[in-house]
Design a protein that fits this description.
This protein has 11 helices and 11 strands. It has a domain of 189 residues: Rossmann fold (3-Layer(aba) Sandwich), CATH 3.40.50.720. Bound molecules: NADPH dihydro-nicotinamide-adenine-dinucleotide phosphate (NDP) and 5,10-Methenyltetrahydrofolate.
Length: 361
């Protein structure tokens, strides 16, 4: 694990989440995702479930939320709904034209977290009927070997999406490898042509990177308006922060980007109606950074030591959850927020790719 450390803020976040999920998970799934209505009763512990009988479209980044009343944006439930939608489309495609969408994953090295992600992607493919292909290469493989695998999948007609799991070992040229993925199969959306088109007005990428796409999809599915809002993206990586900022801009938000050299990040963040945090710093964004009523999408996935957890660690986001949910109007939890959406968007991009390649509507 890259950053195993103690952290003060949100020390009780995990137990609180489990508590909330157990008591209110079912209604969240049914009401937030299905009928787009919220009729929650505030949990006994008060944090992060807003009591409301209004439609989710009432969530506004402008309105001051009442104390301790943020709505939990349930990424796990939305991802499940998207997987159900994909399952139907995959079987319709199979029945109509006999084609099964296929996703190939290339994993180099033996990082535990990467192996877990790849295993989860395979499980997700199985759950919707997408065929999965996998190549595992040793840490000391050559770049040529990886390029050979990419090229094999580029030429394989049963593969419609190719994902090279990142990070790659340091002796490899990541750009060179990502450039080699056929843009028609670039379901991660990391090819420079796809990113370039995302940045240009009037141009459409073939694929949008999965994590930022998942963030926007959550905002859409909760009817959170983006147009005209002030958005702040914290982090500017090629795979999350930068494409997230581009997507928000395409949705007519006014976007600021914060990075490691930004002065007074808290001041800039406090102006935002919508915050997307993709930093990799556990609990960095404190309650005092957040404008009352802001909507928060927490992309960060940071392992922090926790002897009481079965794995010896637990995952926290970049946002100090327990402080933020007292100020924000809506927030994604970690885990159960953006992570499951990333995988759902990967499946969705793979289905889109197969449909496009076979000209199937
Ligand atoms: N939920 C999901 O599906 C996914 C989650 N993640 C998680 O999201 C987080 C970010 O991932 P990723 O984008 O790949 O990370 P990177 O390390 O590639 O990028 C981090 C970004 O954050 C900025 N940054 C770092 N420290 C600070 C700071 N103190 N203040 C302001 N900005 C800072 C960096 O700035 P600079 O550019 O100046 O260096 C950089 O732009 C991680 O926790 C990762 O695990 C990632 C992918 C998917
Ligand atoms: N080519 C490439 N594409 C990626 O999209 C990519 C990548 N490389 N490298 C690593 C990051 C990270 N990433 C995650 C996906 C899902 C969860 C996820 O499902 N998380 C669960 C928790 C999982 C757990 O408990 O361990 C959750 O947040 O609820 C997390 C992180 C994709 N990435």
């Amino acid at each position: 694990m890259a950053s195993l450390m103690f952290t003060d803020c949100s020390s009780s976040t995990t137990s609180r989440l489990i508590h909330l999920n157990r008591r209110s998970g079912t209604f969240l799934l049914r009401q937030c995702v299905g009928q787009l209505r919220l009729q929650t009763t505030a949990s006994g512990r008060g944090c992060c479930i807003r009591s409301s009988s209004s439609p989710i479209s009432a969530i506004s980044a402008d309105t001051k939320s009442s104390e301790g009343a943020a709505i939990v944006i349930d990424g796990k439930a939305v991802a499940k709904k998207i997987r159900d939608e994909i399952t139907i489309e995959v079987s319709r495609m199979k029945e109509s034209i006999g084609v099964i969408p296929g996703l190939a994953v290339i994993l180099v090295g033996d990082r535990k977290d990467s192996a877990t992600y790849v295993r989860n992607k395979k499980k997700a493919c199985d759950s919707v009927g997408i065929k999965s292909f996998e190549v595992r290469l040793a840490e000391d493989s050559s770049e040529e070997e990886v390029l050979k695998s990419v090229s094999g999948f580029n030429d394989d007609p049963s593969v419609h999406g190719i994902l090279v799991q990142l990070p790659l070992p340091s002796h490899m040229d990541e750009q060179n490898i990502l450039n080699a993925v056929s843009i028609e199969k670039d379901v991660d959306g990391f090819h420079p042509l796809n990113i370039g088109r995302l940045a240009m007005r009037g141009r459409e990428p073939l694929f949008v990177p999965c994590t930022p796409k998942g963030c926007i999809e959550l905002l859409h599915r909760y009817n959170i308006e983006i147009k005209g809002k002030r958005a702040v993206v914290i982090g500017r990586s090629n795979i999350v922060g930068m494409p997230a900022a581009l997507l928000l801009q395409r949705e007519d938000a006014t976007v600021s980007i914060i990075h490691s050299r930004t002065k007074n990040p808290e001041e800039i963040t406090r102006e935002a109606d919508i915050i997307i945090a993709a930093v990799g710093q556990p609990n960095m964004v404190r309650g005092s950074w957040i404008k009352p009523g802001a909507v928060i999408i927490d992309v960060g996935i940071n392992p922090v030591e926790d002897p009481s957890a079965a794995r010896g660690y637990r995952l926290v986001g970049d946002i100090c959850y327990e402080e933020a949910c007292k100020v924000a109007s809506a927030i994604t939890p970690v885990p159960g927020g953006v992570g499951p959406m990333t995988i759902a968007m990967l499946l969705s991009n793979t289905l889109t790719s197969a449909k496009r390649i076979h000209n199937f509507q």
